[in-house]
Amino acid sequence: MDQIIALTADPAGWAALTTLAVMEAVLGIDNLIVISILTNKLPAHQQAKARRIGIGLALILR
After folding, report:
1. How many Å apart are CA 29 and CA 2, to the nearest integer?
2. What range does the domain containing 28 cover?
3. pLDDT by residue (tens digit) across 8-56?
4. Would you say residue 6 lies in a domain?
5. Residue 8 counted as domain residue
6. Is 10 exposed, middle or buried (0-12, 13-18, 19+ CB in 10 A)?
């Protein structure tokens, strides 16, 4: 139990967690941009379905 308290009080741990959260957000936005660009090349009736599949797979794989 003391180890958990020590980890939550460590500023380096919080910095690492913040860095990881920011990187995940940036990579998530990057996924959205790439999926958007690629699905715009599809016919209009397939774009919405392709976006849903792409974003769903990105969430599962991340």
Report:
1. 38
2. 22-62
3. 888 888 999 999 999 999 988 999 999 999 999 999 999 999 999 999 9
4. no
5. no
6. exposed
